[in-house]
């Protein structure tokens, strides 16, 4: 008998069994890389590594960490894709990463990739509360890797798929909102900023925000970490019972919150994750923030072995009360989004948390002015739309200075420029459009 | 199947044997009057596998309901065009349009749930898709640079931002593209490309699951043999898509067109359309 919310028997394995499963799978990944993937053959040779040296997960430390920049260099040098980290040629679908940082990473997914992806996606969505019966709204169909996963999901459940015209960027919020109202999905997986786009669209149409989410019981948000206060805010705003955070990357990170809501469990089919010292890639204790480094556990498609995703995150110590053996992580933000003010540095998440805890301002859309950082000041641009600014206007600057211990300037803006994944964390004055 | 069981057709019938042709606006009007997202065109009780929001400004939007047969038939039509354009095994075909365009979501089974076989699966080609926003043009150029696709199927309005991005980023599509297809949801696009590459167009009517494609040889629009065409007494060409099972298409007004007899050496049995 499976525990409520568990996908299969694997969710109640003891941790040691999960570690053995991962060790076996990674060994296979390393064998494939060693025997047939030129990129890794060179790297393994450089450090004198052979897969026979890999006996437990700790042995991953024998391998060098690969950064995104190194893969981009390999691409530039080759002048052509693939770059020697890919396995499988049958029924290949080629993909691009969403290019959050301007650079594009290519991925090729062969037929054999789908077997794993289906299982991983089912588990992830099951944890997040999806159950058979309702339709699935396909987010950013075709080009986005999340949409490829959703397709496998809809096929496997099976579920009806709803394809909305356009894409999941703010200008299409109206189309998505209408599709939600017409087909009432019980589950929604959305990029966090798009939740606010839907709320704004609902208001424009004279609807209450919760009417935009009518019938939705589980809302899975991806793309940005949420604070406990933001979760409550989202629940109140949308009227959705359960708001679940998930984190993923094209390269194979996948983690989803369980019912306990203390950290995101890794989905074991995809990758194992280490959180390492961001400067040296040495091990750090659980609970400390560091660089997120993944190793894929399935030997088909592009293989990422000890790959620094460019995220900063925290591993949770100990076991989760839910009983799932899979370790828990929280991805706090992109390393490139680290805001340096004098001697201190913050992620947008820290600023968000500061706003909540210092003055109770929850769910504000904000960005940091680049010119401010250059002068050693945290110059915040806070979007007025959708928040009650009067209550905090006079207090915010002082409260944030006390909380973050850096000079702060607050500027209220009617709106901020939106990108596909929401408002970028740092904006230059010229991007503010005429202001 | 009989159209009597489809409310939209049943209510429009003038007599048991006379079904007047219809166009997008007739459907829209019916949908608004009946507050039905499918505008009365879905077989009552049928559960579509895939629902597609139709591109266009209608508010509320209209939806196409696709069952297994609709998915299969429409995908076979797209496959027919890819073959006409010369797509073969191993070729990389770049798609620059929203994933909600049938030219994209019917390209590969991985793109659309419940689709058994997309055009690329059928022909052994490898698709790569870029989201259909003009701001994504630089990413398309990166796709060009590193994948050097043999074919490009592009939303017509994106040609200009794409050409601009190619110039800015120093990529010359002539070096690798052997054809470009311009597409848009309704009719034949008017855009042109600034490159010396065979440029072809689609003739689409998404509301009727219809797609025809310009032939590189005769330059007329070959109609996949999955559709039935008829000439209405007022001269308009009507299309039916007999593969529709839960969402039949009967007598859709394709607009003014000349219908040319088969005879193109590229595909000798195809009826062809010439826009007028
Ligand atoms: Zn748990």
Describe the structure.
The complex is a heterodimer of chains A (435) and B (276). With 435 residues, chain A is α/β, with parallel strands linked by helices. Chain A has three domains: 176 residues, ANL, N-terminal domain (Rossmann fold); 134 residues, 3-Layer(aba) Sandwich (Rossmann fold); 95 residues, GMP Synthetase, Chain A, domain 3. In chain A, the strands form six sheets. In chain A, strands 1, 7, 8, 9, 10, 11, 12, 13, 15 and 16 form a ten-stranded mixed beta sheet that branches. In chain A, α5 links the parallel β5 and β6. Chain A is globular, with a radius of gyration of 22 Å. Chain B has 276 residues and is α/β, with parallel strands linked by helices. Chain B folds into two domains: 60 residues, no CATH class; 208 residues, ANL, N-terminal domain (Rossmann fold, 3-Layer(aba) Sandwich). Helices cover 24% and strands 25% of the residues of chain B. Chain B contains seven helices and 15 strands. In chain B, the strands form three sheets. In chain B, strands 3, 4, 5, 6, 7, 8, 9, 10, 14 and 15 form a ten-stranded mixed beta sheet that branches. In chain B, strands 11-12-13 form a three-stranded antiparallel beta sheet, with no helix packed on it. Chain B has a two-stranded antiparallel ribbon with strand order 1-2. In chain B, α6 crosses α7. Chain B is globular and about 60 Å long. The two termini of chain B are 33 Å apart. At the A-B interface, β3, β4, α5, β6 and α6 of A face β1, β4 and α6 of B. The structure holds zinc ion (ZN). Zinc ion binds next to loops of chain A.
């Amino acid at each position: 008998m499976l525990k409520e919310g568990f996908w299969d028997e694997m969710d109640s394995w003891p941790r040691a069994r999960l570690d053995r499963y991962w060790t076996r799978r990674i060994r296979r990944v390393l064998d494939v890389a060693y025997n047939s993937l030129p990129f890794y053959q060179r790297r393994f040779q450089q450090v004198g590594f052979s897969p026979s040296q890999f006996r437990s997960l700790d042995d991953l430390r024998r391998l060098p960490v690969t950064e995104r920049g190194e893969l981009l260099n390999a691409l530039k040098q080759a002048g052509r894709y693939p770059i020697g980290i890919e396995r499988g040629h049958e029924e290949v679908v080629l993909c691009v990463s969403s290019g959050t940082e301007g650079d594009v990473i290519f991925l090729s997914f062969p037929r054999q990739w789908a077997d794993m992806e289906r299982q991983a996606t089912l588990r992830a969505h099951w944890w997040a509360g999806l159950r058979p019966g309702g339709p699935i709204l396909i987010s950013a169909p075709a080009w986005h890797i999340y949409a490829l996963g959703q397709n496998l999901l809809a096929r496997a459940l099976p579920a009806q798929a709803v394809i909305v015209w356009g894409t999941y960027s703010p200008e299409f919020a109206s189309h998505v909102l209408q599709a939600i109202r017409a087909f009432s999905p019980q589950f929604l997986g959305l990029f966090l900023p798009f939740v606010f786009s839907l709320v704004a669209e609902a208001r424009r149409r004279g609807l209450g925000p919760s009417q935009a989410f009518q019938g939705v019981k589980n809302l899975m948000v991806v793309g940005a970490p949420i604070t406990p206060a933001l979760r409550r805010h989202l629940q109140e705003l949308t009227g959705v019972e359960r708001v679940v955070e998930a984190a993923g990357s094209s390269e194979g990170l996948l983690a989803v919150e369980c019912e306990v809501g203390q950290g995101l469990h890794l989905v074991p089919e995809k990758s194992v994750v280490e959180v390492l010292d961001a400067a040296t890639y040495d091990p750090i204790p659980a609970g400390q923030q560091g660089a997120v480094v993944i190793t894929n556990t399935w030997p088909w498609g592009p293989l990422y072995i000890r790959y620094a995703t460019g995220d900063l995150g925290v591993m949770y110590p100990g076991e989760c009360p839910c009983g799932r053996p899979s370790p828990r992580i929280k991805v706090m933000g992109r390393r490139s989004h680290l805001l340096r003010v004098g001697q201190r540095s913050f992620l947008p998440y820290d600023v968000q948390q500061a706003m909540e805890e210092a003055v109770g301002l929850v769910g504000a859309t904000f960005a940091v002015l680049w010119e401010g950082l250059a002068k050693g000041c945290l110059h915040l641009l806070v979007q007025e739309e959708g928040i009650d600014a009067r209550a905090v206007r006079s207090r915010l600057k002082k409260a944030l200075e006390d909380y973050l211990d850096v000079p702060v300037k607050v500027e209220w803006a009617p709106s901020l420029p939106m990108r596909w994944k929401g408002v970028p964390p740092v904006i230059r004055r010229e991007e503010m459009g005429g202001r | 199947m009989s159209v009597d069981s489809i409310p939209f057709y049943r209510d429009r019938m003038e007599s048991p044997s006379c079904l007047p042709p219809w166009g997008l606006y007739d459907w829209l009007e019916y949908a608004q009057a009946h507050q039905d997202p499918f505008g009365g065109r879905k077989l009552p009780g049928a559960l579509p596998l895939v629902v597609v929001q139709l591109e266009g400004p209608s508010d509320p939007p209209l939806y196409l309901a696709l069952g297994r047969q609709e998915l299969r038939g429409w995908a076979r039509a797209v496959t027919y065009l890819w073959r006409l354009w010369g797509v073969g095994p191993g070729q990389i075909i770049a798609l620059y349009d929203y994933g909600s365009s049938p030219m994209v979501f019917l390209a590969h089974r991985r793109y659309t749930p419940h689709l058994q076989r997309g055009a690329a699966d059928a022909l052994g080609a490898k698709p790569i898709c870029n989201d259909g926003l003009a701001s994504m043009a630089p990413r398309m150029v990166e796709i060009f640079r590193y994948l050097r696709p043999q074919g490009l199927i592009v939303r017509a309005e994106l040609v200009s931002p794409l050409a601009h991005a190619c110039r800015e980023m120093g990529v010359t599509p002539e070096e690798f593209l052997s054809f470009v297809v311009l597409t848009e949801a309704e009719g034949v696009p008017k855009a042109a490309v600034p490159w010396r590459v065979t440029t072809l167009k689609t003739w689409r009517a998404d509301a009727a699951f219809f797609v025809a494609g310009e032939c590189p040889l005769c330059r007329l629009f070959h109609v996949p043999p999955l559709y039935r065409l008829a000439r209405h007494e007022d001269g308009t060409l009507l299309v039916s898509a007999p593969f529709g099972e839960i969402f039949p298409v009967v007598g859709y007004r394709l607009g003014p067109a000349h219908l040319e007899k088969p005879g193109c050496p590229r595909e000798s049995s195809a009826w062809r359309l010439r826009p007028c």
